[in-house]
Amino acid sequence: MKKYLITSALPYANGPLHIGHIAGVYLPADIYTRYRKLKGDYVIHVCGTDEHGVAITIKADREGKSPREIVDFYHKNVKESFDGLNICFDNFSRTSLPLHHKVSQEFFLRIYEKGYIYRKEIEQLYCANCNRFLPDRYVEGTCPFCGYDRARGDQCEQCGRWLEPKELINPFCTICGHRPIVKTSFHYYFKLKDFEKPLYDWLSSKAYWKENVLNQALSWVRDGLEDRAITRDLPWGVPVPLEEAAGKVLYVWFDAPIGYISSTIEWANKVGKPDEWKNFWLDPDTKIIHFIGKDNIVFHTLIWPAMLMAHGEYTLPDNVPANEFLNLMGSKLSTSRNWAIWIPDLLSKYPSDYIRYGLSHVIPETKDSDFSFEEFKTRINSELVNNLGNFVNRTLTFIKNYIGLVRHNLVGFRDQDLEIISEIENFPQQVGNHLENFEFRKALKEIMAFSQKGNQYFDYEKPWSTRKVDKEKTERTLYLCASMVKALSIIIEPYLPDSARRIRNMLGFSDQELKWEDAGKWTFDRDMELSKIEVLYKKLDESSNERVMILDENKREERAMDYVSYEEFMKMDIRIGEIVAVEEIPGTDKLYKLEVDLGDHIATLVAGIKSAYSKEELLHRKVPVLVNLEPRVLRGVTSNGMILACDVNGKPVLLSPDSNVPPGSKVK
Ligand SMILES: [Zn+2]
Ligand SMILES: [Zn+2]
Fold first, then answer.
1. Which pLDDT score is estimated for 556?
2. Spacing, Cα 12 to ligand 1 middle (Å)
């Protein structure tokens, strides 16, 4: 029996999960695990929340909470999303557990004692007011490259450059705002450079990996590796287990992957076989497979394997099938810009299998992919409802209504039936081959094509008319359709576990009775008495507007964003105009009468910006103007257009082009 340890990247316990996390990591891992279990392999899937690191302490500081409160809340929140989506783990742990601290500290000590960790003095920023060293994200200041004044200590968000906190001009402590000083501290470094050669040799034996992953890993090794700091000065994390290192914790990237080991140990304790984890981690025959997103490739193909090599006892990963990124309607998912669809929102609206189905089609296997609600709804309606749901329901309803049951000892199949029989026999292998290569989208296409063949066969054999003239032929047709339905009820399980269970139960099978290979057996071993037939899927309303789901992560207010068609938008004629005259309008303290140069003519406009701008501030300013707005008379003056400005709590803030633009230029 083959043995698999499957892991999914540990999600940070500092926010809810969105569709990108699920499609990129957890859904493929769950599909693969379910497939392996159906095949009868010995497989466990472990994961847990990553509860350390500055991302968590910063969120806690910002919200006036303790890190503990933050991780408790999001551990539960993340776990509920996984449960709701039927993403199953044999163990879902937490890196803040004492067990994980102990395992990480032992790991550290072992490679420390083997000489792969050394201590190095470094200069670091220190806040005398807060009385602490400041990790990079705790310092902000002016970017030395572009001048942006809120550049973070690790990266400038404006120009994108990676920074060191010491490079910032006018740095300040993000906790108290004081200017930090430079102070000498020390940290522990892992000798990653020592592993260049062993990593290169190891990667060279991985020709079966996904191309995007292997090429990236090899190119990094060829560029040369640097030793890496593995500790930080933080009050939250796994304490460095050395007396001299008070106040220092392990860097989160160092302890997080060790979470795979501690989660396995926790699992072994839970199932009452405390040594069983060794059967996975100490046996080189175990296939360890890490499911991750592409941002994690460097850790799982270089740093983590090097840590395991340094340790020397544990099994190295067999494969790292990393995915690319999922975009949303053409733009990169972003938590900070609130451009995401959060799983709790999706689950409040759709059954889990609908979400799994929609996301399975956009798993970013070889390149970035895109999610849109239009495509999602079309797929549910035309594929789940009209294809799979239709085939299952018409087959089972016909059997129930006209034959009563599927007789196991049916005979008399003829040549024209052989084609369908061979389809059934080959089905598990065809889908399985794709799954073994992590080609989840291709495998799903095979499944839907098989269901489509079922519909075509049903249409061709016309049981609704043969049942009146040739009862035996009708029974044979429905027997083979039932056999296809049974096959589907097994093969769809990795993708659609709820549907799979419901179909099997309708057919009269118990939950655990069928294995992967049973899908290729077209005969029934016993008479199948069908239970109550229920409709599998319901059509979605394609006209409803799902964009309300893209919500502010914190406020979660319903924000309807109605579409405007491109044609409607293009009807608006917006141009840059230069204000060439400003006059008061008697009897109002809000309005100005403006003359605006629009290139080919000068328009008179009335604008409600008097409370915010003086005449001098307005004169010769360039502003966007909606030119073809219906003329309106205000206080006796006809206004032929409208100045466009931001509305900041009711106060107008003017916009201006950021380079010299001639009046009349079109804005679109
Ligand atoms: Zn910059
Ligand atoms: Zn401070």
1. 41
2. 27
